[in-house]
Design brief:
single chain, alpha/beta, Aminopeptidase, 2 domains, 8-stranded mixed beta sheet, 6 helices, elongated
């Protein structure tokens, strides 16, 4: 009789354990946009020999989605648009893809606004050099599916807010056009030349990583910059 009671107790314990494991499994976090994805900020260049620093905000969005890089700070005087992306993107939930933001902080010879095409300040060149030296290899070796270089302009172009690829033929141009098609306030428009292309977007395209530009109007009100940036982020995420 005692032996039979021990067997019944043992069976009861096994049943309880089985149901317990099932409950734990059902209530454990699953892989989705909101779990297993800790956003981190890392310094990747911080030397007194350099005219600035480079850092990256990593793991924004869905860790199981495509990996996409945004780059800001190549031209330091366009900082308001750069700051807009850094402010907005990490706070958006339910993204389909995984995003990293590379931030170039030029600290030497920032210079001044010229008339657009003729702005050859040393700070502008410093940002381009930092992009080529640090951001380009990080994206090239980072298994990215796409890169977007964020800039702004003083209104010297036919359009004020637009996307374009400096490589006219290829996947980057196709993606940029699709992004523009998804946006009410962002056009596709390709200027005849770009000073920063050889330092980031062109070599990335040449290595098989599609990369295009987003251009915002430098003097747009901040609420307009915000709304355009949200349009861009959502369009890229959906395309």
């Amino acid at each position: 009789m005692i032996k039979r009671e021990y067997i019944l107790i043992l069976i009861l314990i096994i049943i309880i354990l089985i149901f317990g494991f099932q409950i734990i499994n059902e209530t454990s976090p699953k892989d989705n946009n909101l779990t297993n994805n800790t956003i981190v900020r890392q310094i990747i260049a911080n030397s007194s020999d350099e005219p600035g620093t480079v850092e990256v905000i990593k793991n924004i969005g869905n860790p199981n989605g495509k990996k996409i890089a945004y780059v800001v700070g190549v031209h330091p005087l366009e900082h308001q648009t750069h700051e807009t992306l850094v402010k907005i993107l990490p706070g958006i939930t339910n993204l389909n893809n995984s995003y990293d933001i590379y931030i170039i902080n030029v600290t030497q010879d920032v210079g001044h606004y010229g008339d657009g095409s003729s702005d050859n300040s040393q700070g502008r060149q410093n940002g381009q050099n930092l992009a080529l030296k640090y951001v380009y290899p990080a994206i090239l070796n980072g298994s990215y599916d796409l890169a977007i270089d964020v800039h702004s302009n003083v209104g010297a172009y036919e359009y004020q807010t637009f996307v374009f690829s400096p490589v006219k033929e290829g996947l980057a141009g196709e993606i940029a056009m699709k992004v523009a098609d998804e946006c009410e306030n962002i056009s596709y428009y390709a200027p005849s030349s770009t000073t920063s292309g050889p330092y980031l977007t062109i070599p990335l395209n040449e290595k098989g990583i599609p990369a295009f530009y987003f251009e915002e109007y430098s003097f747009a009100p901040q609420n307009v910059k915000d709304s355009h940036m949200i349009e861009l982020i959502n369009a890229v995420d959906n395309v």
